[in-house]
Design a protein that fits this description.
The chain contains six helices and six strands. With 153 residues, it is of the alpha+beta class.
């Protein structure tokens, strides 16, 4: 007897069906932004999203990108990040709590994701020591990247 396998629902499918279930009609701009965010390993600005979609030949307006992003943030599918550059960044939110942190170059503005299990354990210990439960966190480091640091030497 062959056992049926259940494939996990992708973030794209989950997000689009969640919006549909909440009464939002599907649209090309929404689908394009969701699909682009699903392919990203890190955060992007609205302008980067707009530019990428236009480069891919997607006919989408900047105002539509901003509207879709705000809807996705309000619905809980995307998180809006303030990484200290004065520009909002957006990335998909994972139900399983998977996340990463960011380091921002103080010279060129490059943003890079990083994960650190030891850091995560330290943050959990700090939460417990302070008597809090269910804490969430966002960590942003600001430093010169290797390319810019070489230029400063």
């Amino acid at each position: 007897m062959r056992r049926a396998t259940i494939e996990p629902v992708s973030w794209t499918e989950q997000t689009l069906s969640g919006l549909n279930a909440a009464g939002y009609r599907s649209g090309g701009a929404r689908r394009a932004v969701v699909q682009l965010l699903a392919r990203q390993g890190c955060c992007l600005t609205a302008q980067q999203i707009f530019d990428t979609l236009r480069e891919e030949g997607r006919p989408i307006g900047a105002a539509s990108v901003y509207r879709v992003l705000e809807l996705l943030v309000e619905a809980g599918f995307v998180q809006k990040l303030d990484i200290g550059t004065g520009t909002a960044y957006y990335e998909r939110r994972h139900d399983d709590g998977e996340h990463h942190h960011h380091v921002v170059c103080t010279s060129c503005g490059n943003v890079q994701a990083f994960e650190d299990a030891e850091l995560e354990r330290a943050l959990v210990r700090a939460q417990e020591r302070l008597g809090y439960s269910g804490a969430t966190h966002e960590l942003v480091l600001h430093a010169a990247c290797a390319d810019c640091d070489d230029g400063l030497a």
